[in-house]
Write a structure and sequence with these properties.
about 300 residues, alpha+beta, oxygen-dependent coproporphyrinogen oxidase, 8 helices, 7-stranded antiparallel sheet
């Protein structure tokens, strides 16, 4: 059965790869597609675009791994689950860092954790995932549509899902040491078992489709906007926040490292180009003040 479940994730991966390949117009972009195996069990496939006309970098990573001891980061706030007979964890993660500062960074993750019985059948399972948007020059219309699309999808499963998942997203993608959110939110859920497995897998697949549709709408709307060096520098400095969250707070990064994952795939979520500056200049302070008005508020619709 796990092979059938893996197919759902690889189908979603292919859709994102096809779409990202289409939007990247440069023939000089560095494109890599690796299939890899993990010594402890399982493996995956990673697609990366670097130094393109649209992408500074992006990564579309599928993994399906197995092992004996479930890493702590897989549990979140859940009760500790017994995995004496091993576990299987599979998921798709997508990160986009566009070149144009008017196009937001974005992130998608869908995942499934399975506890196995002595016959290696699924004894217990839970799902998680979601998607979020990190603009640098933020537009109200983009943020509202991003959330409206998410709500329309989730309302087809349960009227409370969007309310709960969007709240989770605001709380999860928060950078405590900065006292600010990573972006304008989206949806996030974990330890999910409220529907049967087939319907949950259907929801995960549709979440991936909705992410792609919503993000491409924004990307195609903003990608030809002319930008200044000042705006590009601001984007690179704000990407530092993205890197800080992923390295300090993100449970997905922690899970990958705790499970002896493939380092280059785990860290492919980091932006290729990023800056830190000890002192903020006046133009940065002005742009940051405007951005924080959008980031440190709820866009829940």
């Amino acid at each position: 059965m796990t092979k059938d479940l893996e197919q759902i994730f690889t189908n979603s991966q292919k859709k994102v790869i096809d779409a990202f390949s289409k939007i990247e117009s440069s023939k000089k972009a560095k494109i890599t597609f690796d299939k890899w195996k993990r010594p402890e069990g399982g493996g995956g496939q990673t697609f990366v675009i670097e130094s393109g006309a649209f992408f500074d970098n992006c990564a579309v990573n599928f993994s399906s791994i197995s092992g004996k001891k479930l890493p702590k980061a897989a549990l979140g706030n859940a009760l500790v689950k017994s995995s004496n007979n091993g576990y299987r964890a599979m998921g798709l993660s997508v990160i986009s860092h566009p070149k144009n500062p008017f196009v937001p960074s974005s992130h998608l993750n869908i995942r499934l954790f399975c506890i196995l019985d002595k016959n290696k059948n699924i004894k217990e399972w839970w799902a998680g995932g979601g998607y979020d948007l990190t603009p640098y020059i933020s537009f109200r219309s983009d943020n509202v549509k991003w959330h409206k699309d998410a709500r329309a999808l989730l309302d087809s499963y349960h009227k409370n899902f969007y309310k709960n998942f969007s709240k989770n997203c605001n709380e999860y993608f928060y950078i405590p040491h900065r006292k600010e959110r990573r972006g304008v939110g989206g949806i996030f859920f974990d330890n999910f078992t409220k529907m049967d497995l087939n319907k949950t897998i259907d929801m995960l697949s549709n979440i991936a489709d909705q992410y792609l549709s919503s993000y491409l709408h924004i990307a195609n709307k903003r990608k030809k906007t002319q930008f200044t060096k000042e705006q590009k520098d601001f984007q690179l400095l704000r990407r530092g926040r993205y890197a800080e969250f992923n390295l300090v707070n993100d449970r997905g990064t922690a899970f990958g490292l705790q499970s002896n994952g493939r380092i280059q795939s785990i860290l492919a979520s980091l932006p290729k180009d990023v800056q830190w500056s000890y002192k903020k200049d006046p133009s940065y302070i002005k742009m940051e003040k405007q951005l924080l008005k959008h980031i440190n508020r709820d866009w829940n619709v």
